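Same chain as my last thread, 342 residues:
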Amino acid sequence: MQPGDPSRVSVDPRRALEREGTGALAQLLAGAGYIIQRRALTDLAHALRSCKPLLVEGPRGGGKTALAESLAGGCNLASFYLQGMDDLTIADVLYSWDREAQTQMVRQELAAGTPLREAQARQFTREYLILGEALGAFDYAARSESPPLLIIDEADKLTEKIEDMLLQLLGRGWAHVPRFGDIGVHDPARWPIVILLSNDIRHDLSAPLRSRCLYTWLDAPTPREEVRILRARVPEASPDLIGAVTRLINCIRRDMPAVRDKPGLRESIDLLEALTRNGVEALNQHVIDEHLCFLGKRRKELLNLRQGIARLEFAAHAPDREIDEWVAWAFANEACVLEEAA
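reply #2:
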């Protein structure tokens, strides 16, 4: 678990949404540097109002993880994080028992004269129960005034066994621990905020798991949205540099079919941060070549980018009326935090 900042006030996004509407929710995300697409904002609002998990799918590097993390940061919520992977166990997701401590306790009780049956019964108490990330989030929600956020990242890597473990928890808000009892929260209004993230490339999530979630697809950002996001995430970057990075990235995506693994929003942000950190004011072939590691993720991609480096320099400097207008608009309209999805 990652606790919230104790020096900041925590904001319950459900209450903020109820009192002030979706604009307040967008403002909370924007405060953490996230510019949300209108459709995704609508779907997130539905998930918060209905207290249901939200399954977010979309292309790699499109801002899925940033959406969840920005909600936690903007609202200062405690967050629980479960990384999808093949070898997850019930201990990672739900619970396990501290067997070593249990055994030691039973031995001590027997040495003190406690009857065996009574000593064995004492080992299945909360003191020896270790909660996994998912069940831990629901247990925390039962004891906290503000809901925590449970992020299940790369959910398409979950095995069917792990999906089945999550069904009761996500559908009812609690799980039964044998020899102990129920853990979680029965009132849906107090459930944690659950966001599942998926690239939808490893395997298809089961119908029962999908049925417990509301669903949204996060489109890759349009150039207009990308300009707004870059402005929010790297506020120290100049208008010229933001425009140059946007034009360069879109040249790779649109006009360089040989580069098959296209850079996403994550690569745009990383590149702009590096250029700003290094004091770069303009892009030339040397500068672009020095920063290709941010754009190409395979040897073949790097070779293709290097072969087209003159084209990239030209794209970075060539006037683009739409992008140039969007950059000017982004710097003149800081208060506008909503973007229409294309």
